[in-house]
Amino acid sequence: MSTDSMDGGEADTRPKIEVTEDAAEQAISLLEGEGLDASEAGLRLFVQQGGCAGLSYGMRFDDAPDEDDTIYEHHDLRVFVDPASLKYIEGSVLDYESGLQAEGFHVDNPNVVSECGCGESFRT
Hints:
Blueprint (H helix, E strand, L loop, with lengths): L1 E4 L12 E2 L1 H13 L8 E8 L5 E8 L7 E5 L2 E5 L1 H7 L3 E6 L4 E6 L5 E2 L6 E2 L1
Parallel strand pairs: 1-5, 2-7, 3-6
Antiparallel strand pairs: 3-4, 5-6, 7-8, 9-10
């Protein structure tokens, strides 16, 4: 298990997954609403096969990270990413958007070469 934090220390050259403050606040609120402890549990961000472009994002809360997960900590939110998903989403930013049309989490992924028309799936 490897960890990454915004709390300083030695420079880490690995591509990171960033989380905006808005996304972290929303996720922590939902996590605590599920009765989970934010100091142990976290948001799992993963990539799965599916959608018209081939890949789609998935998110869920987990009680704890898996042994081979990379753990990112931003604004007191722990984000767990498995090794298979990391190669597709490294360098991404997780944000929370709210507006008239839609509200929810959005992944800004620099590795995407095309997305489907509805924005639910992508190809790298």
